[in-house]
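wait is this the right file?? whatever heres the structure
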């Protein structure tokens, strides 16, 4: 096997930390070494999808400040991941929703003493009034036309901006389409810090038909 073929086949194999029957979907910077796995801490991010729009929050403080993301945070001791996702959605956006697991990925940041395991949740309805909090400013964005569905009021989709990937974590565009399409996914994203910016170093994502 040539070096090119061997790099290609190894880039399609799941990276350290990922197991199970997943089909390669995408990867990047495959020539870079993976960072070493550190002890895992669990986190969540939750997304509401309605009328071909997705609700994101602009993070006003703390980790990921000045970026758009789902609503989420750390899983506290004694909580399940789903309980944490529901609590964080209520704390950060003021709403409740029938969240269901859409995918997960490992996030490593060079120099950090832990690996983030982030569970990503989705709901297609919610109750309560979406409210700005001291941590997050909720805003709706348009699902891209290729992922829009005939259900719901698509006119309102045209009144909101496209998903602001350039103001989000640098690998969100690799997996958020899977969450919007309802395709289960898993992955790993290693980052390095350049000044105040987090820059993707290497990533890999896989999908399958059902969780
Ligand atoms: C590529 O890495 C990441 N991508 C995305 N989309 N989201 C990420 C990434 N790395 C971390 N996150 C998310 C996961 C959590 O939602 C937050 C971090 O949680 P936070 O530090 O805000 O936890 P809280 O429990 O809310 O903390 P405080 O109450 O102490 O503010 O970032």
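ok assuming it is, sequence goes like this
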């Amino acid at each position: 096997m040539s070096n090119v073929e061997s790099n290609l086949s190894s880039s399609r194999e799941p990276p350290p930390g990922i197991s199970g029957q997943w089909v390669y979907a995408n990867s990047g910077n495959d020539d870079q070494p993976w960072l070493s796995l550190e002890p895992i801490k669990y986190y969540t991010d939750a997304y509401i999808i309605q009328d071909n729009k997705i609700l994101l929050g602009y993070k006003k403080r703390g980790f990921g400040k000045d970026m758009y993301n789902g609503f989420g945070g750390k899983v506290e001791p004694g909580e399940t991941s789903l309980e944490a996702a529901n609590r964080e959605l209520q704390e950060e956006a003021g709403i409740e929703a029938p969240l269901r697991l859409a995918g997960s990925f490992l996030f490593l940041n060079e120099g950090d003493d832990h690996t983030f395991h982030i569970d990503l949740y989705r709901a297609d309805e919610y109750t309560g009034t979406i409210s700005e909090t001291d941590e997050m400013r909720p805003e709706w964005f348009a699902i891209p036309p290729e992922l829009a569905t005939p259900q719901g009021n698509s006119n309102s989709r045209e009144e909101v901006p496209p998903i602001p990937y350039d103001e989000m974590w640098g690998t969100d565009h690799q997996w958020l389409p899977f969450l919007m399409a309802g395709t289960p996914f898993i992955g790993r994203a290693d980052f390095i810090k350049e000044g105040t910016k987090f820059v993707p170093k290497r990533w890999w994502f896989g999908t399958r038909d059902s969780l």
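Residues 81-93 form the longest helix (13 residues). so i think its the right one actually
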